[in-house]
């Protein structure tokens, strides 16, 4: 089955002479259980693609579906609900809340979704990312790599269909980056998640099954991603 589909997604910033077409009718379909990297020069539309695909921003035209359910078009409340049920995020700068413990940060998406928190299962997911002995720590007591592993646990705790990662290794040393990439790979291979990762780093991209290259807001090439533009 298909986890993510974009059909003719267009996003324009600004108006008139100053308008910038950040995404130009992008169509792609990603099967469930795949790990895709998105690469391209600065300004090519990678972040905008992620924001629109993840329902954090709305395209000007075109549609986005996750598990066959349309993100675009519904009300803000419906979009938020769908996002909380089916989507996880990992950001370059971790975006952890500094006043909350590792455990509290991790279960926050469950609370926001109104789901019951099972502390044993939450501790288990932190053990899976190698932080089983850090549950009560605050983010500022952790290394960058550890913080990003908390962010991965937080992204996976709701058992989402699609996880979006925006330069998840951009602030990490080589060893921490490798650990983070292995966890994303494991989320795909062991747990069947679909991961879409923006990266500048070819080594990071090599952990993915497929690479989509963007240029000027359009797919400009691909490796192992036969579904790009196939739906156009
Ligand atoms: P990338 O992530 O590949 O660097 P972006 O998606 O950030 O590319 O940007 C694509 C294009 O859209 C760029 O020309 C950028 O300047 C423009 N852009 C992105 N966000 C905004 C915004 N909020 N307002 C105006 N222009 C933007
Ligand atoms: P798996 O699918 O890996 O066999 P589970 O079905 O128990 O394991 O849950 C997957 C992960 O999601 C677990 O590691 C667990 O921490 C987390 N999780 C799911 N629901 C909850 C919840 N209500 N409270 C805490 N953690 C949860």
Task: Produce a short descriptive summary.
This protein is α/β, with parallel strands linked by helices and 232 residues long. The protein contains seven helices and ten strands. Strand 1 and strand 2 (20-31) form a beta hairpin.
Mean pLDDT: 94
Largest sheet: 6 strands, mixed
Which sequence of SSEs, written as H and E, runs from N to C?
EEEHEEHEHHHEHEHEE
Helicity range: 25-40%
- Shape summary: globular
Find the count of extended strands (DSSP E, 2+ residues). Answer: 10
Bound molecule kinds, no repeats? adenosine-5'-diphosphate
Instruction: Tell me what portion of residues adopts beta-strand conformation.
Output: 25-35%
Uncertain parts: none
Protein name: ABC transporter ATP-binding protein
Organism: Streptomyces coryli
GO cellular component, one term: plasma membrane
InterPro entries: AAA+_ATPase (IPR003593), ABC_transporter-like_ATP-bd (IPR003439), ABC_transporter-like_CS (IPR017871), ABC_transpr_LolD-like (IPR015854), MacB-like_ATP-bd (IPR017911), P-loop_NTPase (IPR027417)
């Amino acid at each position: 089955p298909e986890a993510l589909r974009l059909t003719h997604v267009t996003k324009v910033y600004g108006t008139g002479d100053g308008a910038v077409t950040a995404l130009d009718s992008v169509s792609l379909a990603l099967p469930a259980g795949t790990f895709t990297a998105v690469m391209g020069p600065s300004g090519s539309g990678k972040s905008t693609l992620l924001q629109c695909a993840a329902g954090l921003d709305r395209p000007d035209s075109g549609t986005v579906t996750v598990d066959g359910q349309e993100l675009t078009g519904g009300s803000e409340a419906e979009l938020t609900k769908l996002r909380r049920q089916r989507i996880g995020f990992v950001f370059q700068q971790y975006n952890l809340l500094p006043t909350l413990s590792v455990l509290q940060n991790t279960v926050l998406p469950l609370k926001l979704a109104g789901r019951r928190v099972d502390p044993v299962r939450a501790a288990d997911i932190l053990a899976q990312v190698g932080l089983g002995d850090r549950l009560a720590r605050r983010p500022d007591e952790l290394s960058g790599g550890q913080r990003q592993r908390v962010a991965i646990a937080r992204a996976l705790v709701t058992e989402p269909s699609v996880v979006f990662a925006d330069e998840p290794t951009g602030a990490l040393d080589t060893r921490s980056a490798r650990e983070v990439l292995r966890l994303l790979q494991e989320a795909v291979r062991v747990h069947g998640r679909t991961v879409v990762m923006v990266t500048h780093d070819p080594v990071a991209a090599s952990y993915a099954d497929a690479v989509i290259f963007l240029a000027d807001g359009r797919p400009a090439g691909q490796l192992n991603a036969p579904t790009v533009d196939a739906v156009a």
